[in-house]
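BUG: 3D viewer hangs when loading the predicted structure for this chain

Environment: internal workstation, default settings.
Expected: structure renders.
Actual: progress bar stalls at 90%.

Input used:
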Amino acid sequence: MFYRCPVCGKKFKSGTDTITEPAFGRCPACRTEGVLVGESGKTVPPDPHDYEDTAD
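Structure tokens produced before the viewer hung:
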């Protein structure tokens, strides 16, 4: 799932395998809840490689 932070503008990804974790969908830089931009296999954003993978 592709997100953009509404506060700092960072682009990042959160995998559905982490959906139960508190950090899911939150910006790795400022921890603000991200705005959903797209989903893998459905509505992928035009620049998917610009999104940071937040998986550990």
